[in-house]
Specification:
about 260 residues, alpha/beta, Rossmann fold, seven-stranded mixed beta sheet, 9 helices, 7 strands, globular
Length: about 260
C-alpha cells in the first residue's frame, strides 16, 4: 500500500532538474503519485484526444490477447487508473475483475464510473501498490497493466509480483508506449509526442505538476522492447511475445505462467 499522504493538486512533481532520467529518481513513487493526483479529472479526455482515440482499441486488443475464459477467469488489472481496462475486461465476462491503483483519486473516479456503467460484471476497485500486492499467491488467471509499468519504481519487482499472484497457465499482459521503428513515422511521432502533446495536454488539464513533460521523457528513457521481454522471462514467464500496435506506438507484451508451475 502507498505510504505517502495524498498530495495537493498544485504539487510540482516534475521539473527540468528531475527529467533527465525520471526512472532514476529515488522518490519517483511520490512524484508519480502527485502527478496522477493532479491530472486525474482530465485523464480520460487527454487519453482519448492525444491517442487519436486509439487508446480504447489498444485496451480491447489487450483483452483479446489475454484469452479470457468467461465465467472462469479471475482478472487483476494493476495501475488501473480510472478503470478503462478493468471495464474492458468486465465486458469479456470473466468470473471477477479487481482494479488496483496507488493513487486514491484515480480509484475514486473508477468507482464513480462503475456506478454509472451498465456492465455484465462490476469490477472491484482498491488502492494498492504494484510491487506489494495485497493478494494471495496464485489467486488469479490474468494480470494486466496498461501504461503503468513505466511508472513503477522497480518494474522487475512488479513483474515478479504479477508472477506470484498468477495461477499455473495464467497470462500477463503489459501495455506500454514504445517508439516506432520506421524512420519517418518515428520522426513524426517524436515531434508530436515531445512538442505538441505536452503543450496541449497541459493546457487541457491546467496541470502544474509537470505530468506531460514527464510522459515523453519516461517513455524515451524506459527499457527497450527486448529488455521488457527479458524481464518477463526472468520472472518465470514463457512464450513471451511483443505485439506492436499502431505502427509501434504501443506494444502489448504477453507471457504465460507454465501450466505445470508449482
Amino acid at each position: 500500500m502507498p505510504t505517502t499522504a495524498e498530495p495537493t493538486s498544485d504539487s510540482v512533481a516534475w521539473d527540468e532538474t528531475h527529467l533527465a532520467d525520471p526512472h532514476s529518481e529515488s522518490d519517483k513513487a511520490r512524484r508519480v503519485n502527485a502527478m496522477f493526483d493532479a491530472i486525474a479529472d482530465s485523464y480520460d479526455l487527454n487519453n482519448r484526444l492525444h491517442s487519436l482515440w486509439r487508446d480504447q482499441a489498444w485496451r480491447r486488443k489487450a483483452v483479446r490477447l489475454a484469452e479470457v475464459k468467461p465465467g472462469v477467469d479471475d482478472v487483476v488489472d494493476v495501475a488501473c487508473g480510472t478503470g478503462d481496462l478493468s471495464f474492458a475486461f468486465a465486458r469479456a465476462r470473466p468470473r471477477s475483475v479487481i482494479g488496483i491503483d496507488f493513487v486514491p483519486r484515480m480509484i475514486r473516479l473508477a468507482q464513480e464510473k462503475a456506478v454509472r456503467r451498465d456492465c455484465p460484471l462490476t469490477p472491484t476497485f482498491r488502492v494498492g501498490d504494484a510491487m506489494r500486492l495485497d493478494l494471495p499467491d496464485a489467486c488469479c488467471d490474468v494480470v494486466s497493466i496498461a501504461f503503468g509499468i513505466r511508472n513503477v519504481s522497480d518494474p522487475q519487482k512488479a513483474i515478479d509480483e504479477f508472477r506470484r499472484i498468477l495461477r499455473p497457465g495464467g497470462r500477463l499482459v503489459i501495455l506500454e508506449f514504445s517508439t516506432p521503428t520506421n524512420g519517418l513515422m518515428g520522426g513524426l511521432y517524436h515531434f508530436y509526442f515531445h512538442q505538441v502533446m505536452p503543450r496541449t495536454a497541459t493546457w487541457i488539464s491546467r496541470d502544474r505538476s509537470g505530468a506531460y513533460k514527464y510522459l515523453p521523457r519516461s517513455v524515451s528513457t524506459f527499457v527497450t522492447r527486448e529488455r521488457m521481454v527479458e524481464m518477463m522471462r526472468c520472472a518465470g514467464f514463457e512464450d513471451v511475445k511483443p505485439h506492436p500496435m499502431t505502427l509501434g506506438i504501443c506494444v502489448a507484451y504477453v507471457g504465460r505462467v507454465p501450466a505445470t508451475s508449482a
